[in-house]
Structure formats: C-alpha cells, structure tokens
Amino acid sequence: MSWWDAIPAFFVVVTIGIAPGLLLSLLLGLRGMALLGSAPAFSVTTITLASIAAPFAGIPWGLLPIGMTTAALCVIVVLFRMLWHRLRPRPAFQHPPVRLLAWAALGTGVAALIITIRFIVAFGDPENISQTYDNIFHLNALRYVLDTGNASSLSLGGLNIDNPQSGTFYPAGWHAITAAIASTTGVSIPVAINLVSILIGAIYWPLGCVFLARTILGPRAIAIVGAGVLSAAFGAFPYRLIDFGVLYPYLLGISLLPAALAFAVIAVGMSNHPEMRNSRAWFALLGVIPGIALAHPGAAMVFVALSSVIVVVGARRSYKRLTAANAAPATIRVLIAATIAVLIVYIAAWLIVRVSVVWEPTETAAQALGEVLTNATTGLPIAVVATVLVVIGALQLRRRPQNYWLLFNFALVGVLYIAAAAMPHSLLQSLLVGTWYGDSYRLAAVMPVVALPLATLGLVVIYDTIRTRAPQLIITATTNSEGRHQRRLAIVTVVVVLLATQGYSLHIATVEARSQYVVAEEPVKEAPLLTEDELDVLNHVADYVPEGAIVAGNPWTGAGLVYAISDREAMLPHVGGFDTAESRLIGEHLRDADRYTSVCDALATLEVGYALDFGTREIHGDAHDFDGLTRLASSDAVEPLYTSGDVGLYKITACE
Questions:
Q1: Cα–Cα 20 to 30 A to 397, which of 109, 265, 628, 635?
Q2: Which residues are registered as beta bridge partners of 394?
C-alpha cells in the first residue's frame, strides 16, 4: 500500500477520531476554538469508555459500541444543559467571528501539513513498523483486540486470548482507537498505527494548542495562527514520541493536554477572554480527564502537575476578588476548602501513581538545564528560533503579570526533566519523577506544552512591535497608510519567523525517528527489531501454520510479532511478564527436544507445534537464554517449512 492508497482510510480515521467529540462539543454549546480544540479529547474519552463498557454488554469492539456510547453521552450533556439553565439562567455567550475560525483553520492546517509530511518521512512506507522495544506489546495487543473483540483497559494487560475478561489493567485508549480503525477500514495493523499517529500528531495536537493559546492570549488572529504553526516547531513533541519507546499511548495523552489546560484556565477564572462560562468549563473537564488518564496515566499526572499551579494561582486571584468585594465569609471559606480538597487529591494521586525509577542519569544537571533553556532536550540540536520566541514571551510577562503562571509551569517541567535526566536515584527523585519511570524522554515531551504559549506570546510581541513601533500606538497607527505598511511588514516578518522554526533541530528529530522504521537488510550490532529476512519469514508463516496453532520464538528477536504480523498465536507475545516454567524449558532446550521428554511435556502443555529461529540478536543488544530456539537448521527435533537467509520457520516433529 502507498500513502496515496491510504488516503481514503485516513478520512475514516479522522471521522472516527473527531466526530464523537465534535458532536458532544456542539451539544455542550461550545463554539469557536473551544469547539474544535475539545473535540479530540471528548472523542478519546467516548471511545475509551465505550471500550470498557462493550465487554459488559457482550458487544464486540467496533463502531457499534462507539456509536451507542456517543448517544448515551449526548443525552447526559443535553440533560446537564437543560438542568443548569433552569438553575442558573444566563444570556448566551456571543459566538466568535467567523474570521477567527478561518485563521484557526490556517494555523492548524499549516501545522497538520508540516507534521504529516515529517511523519511520512519518518515512517517511510505505510506498512513499516517502529522497530522498538515497546512496539512488540503494542502490535500484539492490537491483534489481541481484533481477535477477542475486547479493547477494555480493565483487561488488556494480560493479553489472555483464551479468557479476555481475566486480564489485568492497562490503559487502552490508544489501542481502542487504533483497533477500531483497523477493523473498520480493513487496513493492516501497521498501517492503522501510522495513520492514527498522524491523526494524533497532526490534528489532535495543533487543535489543542490553538485552543490553549486562544484561552490565554485572547481572540487575536496572530496568536491563533502562530500557535497552530508553532505546534510543529518543537522536536520533543510530537516527533520524539514516534521515535523513542515507541510510546504511542503517551503520545495520545500528551496531545490532549493543551485542551485540558485550557478548560482548567477557564474554570478557575484565569482567562480574560473565555469562550464559555466557568461552570461549563468544569463540566467539560469531566469529559476530558478520563480520556487522558486512560490514554496514559503519566499524561494525567502531567495534568495534575501543571493544573496545580493553575488551581493555586486561580484560587489566590479569586480570594482577592472576593475580599475586595466584601463577599460573605461563607463564600470565602468554600473557596479555601475547595482549593485544599483539590490539592489533597492531587498530592494523593502524586504519591499513589508512581512506579520504580528504572532509568539511569544520562547527563549533568548543568547540561540538562541548558537543554531546557534551549529546547534541546534528549540530545536534540538547539531550537534557535523557537527558543528566542520563548525568551521574548517570558520577558513580556513583566507587562502581563496575569500570565506569570506560564513561567511557573515552564520552570516546573524543567525541574522535573532535570530530575529525570541528571539526578541520581534517591527518594527525592522517586517522589519527583517516579510516575514517569525517571524517564527523561517522557518529560522532554511535556516541554513543548509549556513552551508553546510563551513562544506564541513572543510571536505576538514581535508582530505588535513591528506593526505599531510601540504597542500603545496600535489604534492611531492602523488608521493611515503608514499603519498599513507596518502591518504588511509585521505579517511578512511573522511568516519568516515561523518558517525559520522549521530548522535543523526538527530535521534531526525526523531523521532519528526514521532510523527506527528502517528494515535492516542483515543483522548488525545495533540492528532494529526485525531484519528483511525475519520480516519475510513472518509474512509467510500463515502459509504454513494453521489457524489456532501456537508458535514458539524468542520475543527479544522480534519472533513474538508472529501474532501481530502473521496472525498466529505466539508462545511469548512480549518480552516481559508472559513466561512460564514450560516456556522457559522450551526456550532453553527445544533444539534437543528429541532427547528430552520434559520438553515434549512442555510443548503439549502449551500446545506449541511450530518454532521461529531468529538467531541470537536481540533488541537493545540484550542477551537471554533462548539457546534452544537457535541453530534449528541443524536440529533433528524440527523440520524446516520456510527459511530466508539464516532465519526460518520450523515444524516441531520430535514429539510426534
């Protein structure tokens, strides 16, 4: 399949990924950037809740449960609006002018085009897969969903094909969306993954960024267009997350954060030009947070960290307003109690949602600080133009003290990144970054979320300075020919600046991502998950292995992908958490099964009848004891079915 052939399927991807949330946003009464920016998050929540509810209703995963859940949520939204308007009748908010929507379309459209092109360059071919550690699980998890009709987050973790309901919790928002795409369009799992990645990076992310910028900076065309284009200006997100890991669920969760933060800003009364009332923003948050949490809990904890600043600053401002207006003491006490309650919940979540820190420090604190200040995290080149814009925006906060919290959030994420990248293992490090495994790449991906509003503000400052020579002269300057000249000059400057953001740093991020999707012709020391020979064998497994048969293989070599790619069940579908005493015995001694009856017993227990020999090269250069699944060509325990180069598929004959 070519990228041109994939275009019809991508229209289906966009429809499934946007339509449920767009309908809910309309019914909630959202308009303008709020309507567009919230649609992705509402869609993810809808699809994820549908995937959890479907098994209880006995409905296989697909469009039907998505449609039913969308209908149910629509009823809830309509009832909320009817009840709330009865309790608190208020005049409706004025709809935003159409021209602002046109500017939003321009900004997000440019970003979508840029990010799509870079993603296509990184992927190479629509059928290519990310040849990385985590993708073994993600690919097989999608096959599991398609086979069992179960995409529930409550049970995906176990990949228990025989009894899908008995699995363990794993956030399955991304898997539910991608599996729905694959089943609806009929495209292969790799193609579905790549199309959904484009949906997330090129549509979800820019829409949220524009909504956040509109909420913070007001209904200014330059801010709306600038935020859209600048969403494609940071290498750490979305490009790094299709490279490292590969962290598809985290990619989804982070892409929804800007919209969630925008609702939080409106909810606590910190937006000078909101597009909705506070009460509606609070209700909207209820529709956003479940999607983020079930996409990836790490993304939800980023929201906790960033929104804690918003809650504290918003509460402080509300307290000042109430005291200045001589509000009733009971009202002030309610504000204080509510703020304390939210912070207690946040602290409890911070302490509970933590895992072991598994990543070692990779640099010094000084190096990590420099990376934060120059948008060069995780070894990327300095993003010169984006960094200049961030600095200008930060300096402008002296004239916009109401937005100082943007700097606080930037500093907070910077501290977390430094703790992950440079701090030695300790209780303090665990408390700070244990939620993200102490992984600097995950926290680097958050930097664009907090840098983009500052960069957008910096762009606005450049525009205003050139257009008016001094921002306070904006009215007089635009009433004469000189004003028109200044405006043209300002627009040209902004266009040049935005083009200049697409520089070397993004080129390197794209090139490094592409290296993860290349299929090697032959094994090398740092070879990816699959070579051309191994992929060739996987593509022919179904020709020789009947449905229902189980295939043994060392998952660290990519042999476990026989499930995702060949649609035949793998003895070990991932590298961790699935092995048993029987699978270890097979892995260590299958080659000599004709001499060890215990191996035959293990094969009978697990119902394994075939084996893949992908040699000893493992992902990440690791080495595990699967010696019994190597050099099968010289073993009397098997007979070859299909070979390519030094790797092959074998039928186990020793126990017949």
A1: 109
A2: none
d(CA 166, CA 160): 7
Give the model's pLDDT for residue 527.
Answer: 53
Name the nearest CA neighbour of 520 among 506, 505, 530, 507: 530
Three-state secondary-structure class, residue 187: coil
Q: What is the pLDDT of residue 446?
A: 97
Write down the residue that tokens 């308009």 correspond to.
31
Mode of pairing for the β-strands spanning 550-552 and 608-613? parallel
Q: Please give the backbone phi and psi of residue 397, each rounded to the nearest 5 degrees, phi first.
A: -60, -20
| pLDDT the model gives residue 157 | 84
Give, in order, the Cα–Cα distances in Å from 247 to each of 120, 174, 237, 244, 312.
Answer: 18, 10, 11, 7, 31
Distance CA 452, CA 450 (A): 6
Strand-strand pairing, 638-644 and 647-652: antiparallel
pLDDT at 87: 67
For the chain, how far is it from start to end, CA to CA, in angstroms? 41
Least Cα distance to 368 among 358, 357, 376 occurs for: 376
Find all residues with CB under 8 Å of 571, minimum gap 6, and list them.
550, 551, 552, 553, 583, 586, 606, 608
pTM beyond cutoff 0.85: yes
Q: Which residues contact 185 (CB under 8 A, 6 or more apart)?
A: 8, 9, 12, 13, 192
What per-residue confidence (pLDDT) applies to 468? 77
One-letter-per-residue 3-state SS of 35-97: HHHHHHHHHHHHHHHHHHHHHHHCCCCCHHHHHHHHHHHHHHHHHHHHHHHHHCCCCCCCCCC
pLDDT at 191: 96
- Residue 554 has what pLDDT? 92
pLDDT of residue 523: 55
CA angle (448, 452, 453) in 5-degree steps: 140
CA pair distance 315, 527, nearest whole angstrom: 53
Phi, psi of 638 (to 5 degrees): -140, 165
Nearest CA to 234 out of 411, 47, 375 is that of: 375
**Ranges of the chain with pLDDT below 50:** 470-478
State yes or no: cis peptide before 238, omega within 30 of 0.
yes
Q: How far is CA 408 from the centre of its chain?
A: 24
For residues 47 and 179, is the Cβ–Cβ distance under 8 A?
A: no
The Cα–Cα gap between 509 and 504 comes to 9
What is the pLDDT, as a whole number, of residue 199?
97
For position 182, what pLDDT does the model report? Answer: 96
